[in-house]
Automatic annotation (TrEMBL):
Record-linked PANTHER family: CBB3-TYPE CYTOCHROME C OXIDASE SUBUNIT FIXP (PTHR33751)
Residue span of region Disordered: 1-28
Segment forming the signal sequence: none
Family as reported in the entry's similarity comment: Belongs to the CcoP / FixP family.
Organism for this UniProt entry: Consotaella salsifontis
Annotated residues for binding of heme c 2: 180, 225, 228-229
Cofactor(s) the protein needs: heme c
Domain of life: Bacteria
Keyword hit for Membrane: yes
Pathway assignment: Energy metabolism; oxidative phosphorylation
Protein name: Cbb3-type cytochrome c oxidase subunit
Gene Ontology MF annotations: electron transfer activity; heme binding; iron ion binding; oxidoreductase activity
Pfam families in the record: Cytochrom_C (PF00034), Cytochrome_CBB3 (PF13442), FixP_N (PF14715)
Length: 303
């Protein structure tokens, strides 16, 4: 800040107190000093200019119409990426070859293979499975939660490989397939019977229905549902019949949801992934899904 500027011997306006030349700019009677930049800052600035010139000469830098200057070193990021991918693929090959040669049970019983397969399977899951099962594999209405260790078609590593490989109602010759009758739509049960059986189904998991007679529903269940869900409603993996006593619901656990499912059931479809992903990736994906249910190498060894 300048208060009483004076002129030096060369006719330049300077601050009387410091002797620093002013810029000639003035705001509300306050004049700006032309204080030189610190030398370290100037040398740093000059250094960045020199660095940029060297970089432009050595590396791709200046965009042209259809390409860019290549630089005297001939380096480019695409070739560098290809080299890194090739190196990573070579390092992974030993594990992938072992997984390809091993059975699913052998993969999860070997700590190193299980760890590698689970990591690789996580990547495959992120690309192929999150669209339905969610990024956290917790599913949603109509899409199973893979974290809760509750399995429609069985939760052993072989069961999971089978389900992933051939899907559910996918059209494959070896697909998992089951179909719940439309008890209401096809007139097998009347509305009162469906309401009663829904009350009984809720009671299996300790819940109380808002309407219907659970005692009468128990007989309806025994006559129509035990063939698939079992006498106590605990389900059957061979048929993909869910456990009705654990409070875990695929299509919702309110009484209205159960009535809707009994009346006109929904049947989900899962693709057959084996033709798309190949056997090795399916094993890796199965290992990852298997680990989501809390499985460990020790538990796998006990299968």
């Amino acid at each position: 800040m300048v208060n009483d500027p004076v002129e030096d011997a060369h006719g330049r306006e300077v601050d009387a107190a410091t002797g620093t030349e002013t810029t000639g700019h003035s705001w509300d009677g306050i004049k700006e000093l032309n204080t030189p930049l610190p030398r370290w800052w100037l040398w740093t600035f000059y250094g960045t200019i020199l660095f940029s010139i060297v970089y432009v000469v050595l590396y791709p830098a200046i965009p042209l119409v259809h390409s860019a200057t290549s630089g005297v070193l001939g380096w480019n990021s695409r070739d560098a990426l290809k080299a890194e991918v090739a190196e990573a693929t070579q390092e992974q090959a030993q594990f992938r070859d072992q997984i390809a040669a091993a059975t699913p049970a052998e993969v999860v019983q070997n700590a190193d293979l299980f760890r590698f397969a689970s990591a690789a399977g996580r990547s495959a899951f992120a690309v192929n499975c999150v669209q339905c099962h969610g990024a956290g594999a917790t599913g949603g209405p109509g899409y199973p939660n893979l974290q809760d260790d509750d399995w429609l078609w069985g939760g052993t590593i072989d069961d999971i490989v089978q389900t992933i490989s051939y899907g559910v109602r996918s059209g494959s010759d070896e697909t998992r397939f089951s179909e719940m009758p439309a008890f209401g739509r096809d007139g097998i049960l009347d509305a009162e019977q469906i309401e009663n059986v829904s009350a009984y189904v809720l009671s299996l998991s300790g819940q109380k229905a808002s309407s219907g007679d659970a005692t009468a529903g128990q007989q309806v269940f025994a006559d129509n549902c035990t063939a698939c869900h079992g006498e106590n409603g605990q389900g059957m993996h061979e048929l993909g019949a869910p456990n009705l006593s654990d409070g875990i619901w695929l299509y919702g656990g309110k009484q209205s949801d159960i009535i809707a499912q009994v009346t006109g059931p929904r049947h989900g479809v899962m693709p057959a992934w084996l033709p798309r992903l190949g056997e090795t990736t399916v094993k890796e994906l199965a290992a990852y899904v298997y680990s989501l249910g809390g499985a460990t190498v020790e538990q796998a060894s006990a299968q």
